[in-house]
Amino acid sequence: MNNETRPHSSDVLRPRNVGAAIKRTEDPRLLTGRGEYSADRKPDRLLHVAFLRSGQPHALITRIDTVAAQEAPGVIAVLTAEGIAGDFKPVIPFSRMPNYYATPIVPLAIGKVRYVGEAVAAVIATSRYLAEDALELIEVDYEPLGAIARAELAVVDDAVLLHEEAGTNVLISREFKKGDVVADLKAAAVRVSGRFEMTRKAPLAMEPRSYTAEYDKRRDAVTLYTSSNIPGIVRDAICESLDLPGHRLRVVAPDVGGSFGSKGSLYPEELLICIAARKLGRSLKWTADRLEEVSSSSQAFAEIVDADMGFDANGIATSLQADVIGDVGAYSIYPWTCGLEPVQVVSFLPGPYKIASYRGSVRGVATCKPPTGPYRGVGRPISTFVAERLMDLGAKALGLDPLEIRRRNLIRAEEFPYRIASGIIWDKTGFVECLEAAAEVVGYEQLRAQQADARKHGRLFGIGIASYAELTGIGSRIAVAPGMPINTGSETAKITIDSTGAITAAFGVASHGQGLETTLAQIVADDLGARFEDVRVIQGDSDEVPMSTGTYASRSAVLGGGAAKQASRIVQHKIKRVASHLLEANQDDIEVLDGKAVVIGTDRAVTFKQVAKAVYSDMKTLPVEAREELTATYTYDPINGTTAAATHIAVVEVDPATCFVKILKYVVAEDCGRIINPMIVVGQVHGGVAQGIGAALFEELVYDDDGQLLSASLVDYVIPSAPEVPAMDIVHIESESAVAGGFRGMGEGGTIGAPAAIANAIADALSPLGIDVSILPMTPERIFKLMEQTRLNARGKADE
């Protein structure tokens, strides 16, 4: 692996911590088993929860008999929707969007079930084993209503309705328009089109969802330990539902073993466990098994896109139109709504390209499946797949090299800020620089020569390019999900130096594996003037800052880092003011570095501990008016956010005998602004590309026509293993963004670029056979069927 850093866009000297490849401070405890996850909590007199889940995809619940289960050994209670009806209000994922129906979120199914895996009843017992045993004693009678397993069938006139009160299975519809796309497509010298599909995926974090609700009888309060990346949002939603003040519900996300988006929504089980803890006055725990995790957690993608792109004779894209149907599952999710994934497909479809006219129309359709929700990349993996396939199809029709057609269409440095046809504004970033750097590092011209030689010998050798853009660290002016009524565009940091001189930095963001304890400490250390090892980072705790949301949408470096910089600087100014009294110097002549305030050009200095003692303990050292608490809280809002970009180039070979795809070479050139920790950035790129390989080649949740999941275990749901993930060459293009610190988000890029690059590489490899790529994953079975169909077609023509 070769990781190359291009020269910074400015010659400003880097701070000593930001930019350094500091080892993650989280890792020693996580690697030695000293981490604490939600399932590790062991409160006194703990009870365990197990859920009875529907085996029906769509049915009325006509009877639930829990008598035998309630009498089973170890059972404390059996809860149904009827039994807890007065203990909560449904959570409504509101949105100001027109043409949107908000399905209510409830702890247990009320009246009917809408997908296989929906929770119908909960058994609470002294052990999980006894709770599971009692589930088998519950009798439920269902009246089937007919399954809707495919989005296309859900929109036909006589389709059964999942939510009768909505009057339709289309829960969200939206359209973006600019210019006269019909006329421009008609006038185009070349018009390319296709129907593209990316099937459902499971986020499949290493740690399944897990919740422990610890009841405090003295205060009638609950602390919910949750494997969530949005503890603040969860706290606020449950408080509203249970009519609790915030100080009686604390939500903590301790160590979290991955999310990839699936732990970024409120779940019915979180509601249920808090309701039950208060109802029984006991602490409870639930951890999903892998089957529950796959069949009831939010899922990803599931869109079909019919798209057309027009080009002029010079290869300039003039027009783009797309009609998208998104399978959003049975319910909206809180707080993001069911519009999160499908609407972002049409929002981001124009990508980093200058396309004059555009129409993007989308429908989010209810089906008998778990809800779709956030997944690493949200909407952009499929939109990038579609746009990049169309670019390659255009290049082929025009006789241009795929690299050249992108050179002609990418937004260039002098054109920023640039408003794309869907209305999104890209700030200045390295679109062209990423393309050229990736081509240089991969040795593009030599690869094309190598490909020509390989084809002479009958090898199916392909090269694929994908360029993309994404909004990161989105501020208050742009909702993370369209029309959301809650503010997810700001983030809070609280920096405190206590009476011993110890530094604590508390944040509203919540890590689920990104190394935030390390990167945020690097920022605080530089802007406060502290030693890195002296900074303790607390995150994922709703009690630590007045308002916390969490980690999603590649926001932690931009928003959390921006808040850290501002709060740290406020505290540093306080240190300087105190030190000016202690050192009898003008505060402008004092610098703060390595945990000390020093008079510039002298050896006169005071440590943070001495400053803290003067403020908090020694009442004779400072005048009364000079004593000020060494703490600051700052809420940072980047207003618009910032743009990240990358180009991925994949080189593959398809084995004609086995139809397996082998990735021979992989290059990523990415621009995430000023890099905080290059080692962590490289790790994020590797992980994202690995997931992108899964989406491109392996991963697929397969449902039959009756809404039954056929790939619910890791025997059937295939993910890439080490041999399928190649070594990568990574190039960093550090163009500073306009937000605080010059940072850009980058946690989702691998999953955005990789599927499209690999799809284009496979299409390139199979092009001598006349085979195209329009669906992902391109499994060996799909490639085999395409090759067989090609052979049959060729045989038929020969017979003619």
From TrEMBL:
EC number(s) on file: 1.2.5.3
A GO molecular function held by the record: carbon-monoxide oxygenase activity
Transmembrane stretches, start-end: none
Record-linked InterPro entries: Ald_Oxase/Xan_DH_a/b, Ald_Oxase/Xan_DH_a/b_sf, Ald_Oxase/xanthine_DH-like, AldOxase/xan_DH_MoCoBD1, AldOxase/xan_DH_MoCoBD2, AldOxase/xan_DH_Mopterin-bd_sf
Keyword Oxidoreductase: yes
Alphabetical UniProt keywords: Molybdenum, Oxidoreductase
Name the UniProt record assigns to this protein: Carbon-monoxide dehydrogenase large subunit
Species annotation: Bradyrhizobium elkanii
